[in-house]
Design a protein that fits this description.
The protein has helices at residues 9-17, 21-27, 34-40, 110-126, 134-146, and strands at residues 29-31, 44-46, 52-55, 64-71, 76-85, 91-96, 101-105. By secondary structure, it is α+β, with helices and mostly antiparallel strands.
Length: 147
């Protein structure tokens, strides 16, 4: 999303539908399942081939399968067992938007591993940095009353 920010619906729609492939990859992100979110300290990732996903919205809600293809031009992903039969008997994949699925298993390679370390690595090392507990608040109040 290198383009300038705007509030115009017309401009945002134009930017979305004329986005180049490297931007479409980022737009086609899906949230991680709660287990993966806790493990990797990361909320969402771009979907890729060989990830395992579960559909959480629409007619096919609850269906699971492996991602067969990411069709960036149409902003959809094709899932292994989600097909329908055409009138002539041919079976075709059903396109599902990545925001309507949740990633249940990540296909790991070196690039994915580095991306997860980059996105969630600092949270594992520092823990609850910046969070104030009630214990600290009470101790700060007692310190201020002593002065």
């Amino acid at each position: 999303m290198v383009r300038t920010a705007t509030c115009s619906r017309r401009t945002n729609r134009r930017n979305h539908f004329t986005a180049p492939s490297h931007e479409r990859r980022k737009i086609m992100s899906a949230p991680l399942h709660n287990d993966l979110r806790a493990k990797h300290h990361c909320r969402s990732m771009p979907v890729r081939k060989d990830d395992e996903v579960q559909v959480v919205r629409g007619v096919h809600k609850g269906r699971e399968g492996k991602v067969v293809a990411c069709y960036r031009l149409k902003y959809v992903i094709h899932i292994e067992k989600l097909t329908r039969e055409k009138a002539n008997g041919a079976t075709v994949n059903i396109g599902i938007h990545p925001s309507k699925v949740v990633i249940t298993k990540l296909h790991m390679d070196n690039d994915r591993r580095r991306a997860l370390e980059r996105k969630g690595g600092n949270k594992t090392a520092e823990g609850d940095k910046g969070k104030v507990t009630s214990k600290e608040v009470t101790s700060a109040k007692s310190m201020s009353t002593v002065d």
